[in-house]
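Researcher: I'd like a candidate sequence for this fold, 524 residues long. If you have to choose between options at a position, lean toward the conservative one.
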């Protein structure tokens, strides 16, 4: 794809394949709804991601719809759908990616002795035949086919070479070697790539890709070792999201290649300045907070506390800084607007922050900004982001918060909440106050009482959007019902209001999910 940036020699170009919305979403609790996936897809495309794996179309209607809508939205990146080695999976994936300008089907089958025997209960020869059948079938439907040997790092080398050769002969344009269980060590994994290059006669007809999991904390190291050995596609996720210990973190791979270009002259086409924005978006949507000391995107990644470091930094930034905060899009928190700022300045700020939302959403966000500026003296970029995210998230809500009053503290035991909600347009109040073990518990009980919804609370998390006691609280609530999980977000300078908003937001998402499977009425 072209981003107008410097283009690397083809032999040095590293294709970045993002699987945040597929493998990342497989992480328990990291669910994303359609509009959230579309927002992530937009940011990934803006970053210059080459391939976006948007889901596993056969897995559910929701996954199909997400891949299909991302395929309609995205114009620059390739849009990919995952499929097992079966006719129905492949046809479903083909249908989902059909609207894409650059559609790809990614089909996979396990090739390790362990997986073939216990998971697939298939003989190697049958797996080999399935490789040929699945890739040819996919190749009849799209021009761009990726084939993966699941549990690649524990696959016998001779069998891997046979399967890779057959997949390429059948039409695979990319062959992906996953370290599915995060078992490989860098030298060992690099040797697999070198072996494929040496032993598979048609290997030059396909791109070699790698897909590493982080069970031993080696996903990025293994991916980079593989690139050095000849892999030219890396599969990764924002913030390293993914099953168990996660996948290789895109931001770490890209920044390692950029920072150590002296030893690793391989070029991804990523606009690294978008990394922070993408990281925050994925973290907000999934409720998976980034640890403060996480490389590249952790809150402390560019903080220099110790006196010796600060002194060095003041003398010359490169004494302790191997990359600049600006290179990953981290800028000083800027004081943006005050309560006297008008619509024009607000719209300009939205543009600067990369928001392109409709006129109604701008008007709604502006009103909420004015309310915030009345309470909070200094309004920062982060405040605007939280506020707009909330505005976008809350459109079409069935349940809306009308008012909340909480009594708590040492003089009010037990804490009580009085709540009014609008449910499908009908206003309902608790009347008398609802008691709880704490103020948040009282609020959640009041919401349950009014809506009649009692999903299981899996996560309640608060984080401050900016510094200071007048900071907005951003609350994430994860609810689970019949195996389906959703994450709700709410932001407000009042933590109790933010908590109520987050719970209601999660309930709204659950309602949409429920409606998609079976019609269910709101009670109470
Ligand atoms: O980890 C894995 O093996 C996968 C494949 C589907 C590529 O996610
Ligand atoms: Zn995986």
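Model: Candidate sequence:
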């Amino acid at each position: 794809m072209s981003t107008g940036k410097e283009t690397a020699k083809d032999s040095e170009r590293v294709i970045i394949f993002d699987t945040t919305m597929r493998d990342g979403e497989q992480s328990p609790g990291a669910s994303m709804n359609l509009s959230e996936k579309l927002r992530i897809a937009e940011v990934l495309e803006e970053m210059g991601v080459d391939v976006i794996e948007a889901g596993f179309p056969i897995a559910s209607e929701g996954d199909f719809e997400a891949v299909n809508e991302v395929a309609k939205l995205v114009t620059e990146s390739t849009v990919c759908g995952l499929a097992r080695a079966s006719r129905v999976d492949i046809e479903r994936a083909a249908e989902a990616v059909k609207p894409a300008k650059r559609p790809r089907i990614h089909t996979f089958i396990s090739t390790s002795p362990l997986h073939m025997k216990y998971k697939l209960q298939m003989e190697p020869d049958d797996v080999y035949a399935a490789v040929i059948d699945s890739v040819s079938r996919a190749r009849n439907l799209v021009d761009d086919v990726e084939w993966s040997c699941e549990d690649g790092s524990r696959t016998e080398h001779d069998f891997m070479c046979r399967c890779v050769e057959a997949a390429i002969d059948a039409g695979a344009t990319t062959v992906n070697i996953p370290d599915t269980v995060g078992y490989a060590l860098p030298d060992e994994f690099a040797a697999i790539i070198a072996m494929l290059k040496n032993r598979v006669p048609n290997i030059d007809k396909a791109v070699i890709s790698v897909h590493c999991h982080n069970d031993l904390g080696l996903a990025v190291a293994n991916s980079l070792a593989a690139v050095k050995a000849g892999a030219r596609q890396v599969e990764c996720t924002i913030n390293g999201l993914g099953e168990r210990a996660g996948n290789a973190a895109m931001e770490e791979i890209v920044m390692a290649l950029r920072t150590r270009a002296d030893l690793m002259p391989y070029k991804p086409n990523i606009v690294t300045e978008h990394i922070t924005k993408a990281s925050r978006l994925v973290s907000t949507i999934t409720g998976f907070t980034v640890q403060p000391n996480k490389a590249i995107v952790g809150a402390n990644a560019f903080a220099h506390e110790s006196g010796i470091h600060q002194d060095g930094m003041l003398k010359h930034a490169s004494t302790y800084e191997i990359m600049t905060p600006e290179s990953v899009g981290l800028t000083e928190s800027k004081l943006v607007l005050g309560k006297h700022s008008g619509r024009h300045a607000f719209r300009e700020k939205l543009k600067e922050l990369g928001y392109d939302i409709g006129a109604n959403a701008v008007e709604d966000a502006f009103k909420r900004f004015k309310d915030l500026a009345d309470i909070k003296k200094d309004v920062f970029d982060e405040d605007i982001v939280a506020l707009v995210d909330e505005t976008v998230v809350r459109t079409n809500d069935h349940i809306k918060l009308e008012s909340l009053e909480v009594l708590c503290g040492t003089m009010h035991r037990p804490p009580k909440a009085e709540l009014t909600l609008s449910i499908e347009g009908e206003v309902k109040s608790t009347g008398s106050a609802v008691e709880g073990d704490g103020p948040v518990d009282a609020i959640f009980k009041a919401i349950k009482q009014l809506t009649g919804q009692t999903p299981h609370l899996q996560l309640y998390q608060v984080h401050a959007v900016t510094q200071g006691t007048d900071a907005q609280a951003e609350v994430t609530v994860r609810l689970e019902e019949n195996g389906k999980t959703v994450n709700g977000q709410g932001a407000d300078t009042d933590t109790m209001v933010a908590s109520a908003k987050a719970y209601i937001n999660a309930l709204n998402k659950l309602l949409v999910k429920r409606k998609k499977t079976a019609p269910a009425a709101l009670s109470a």
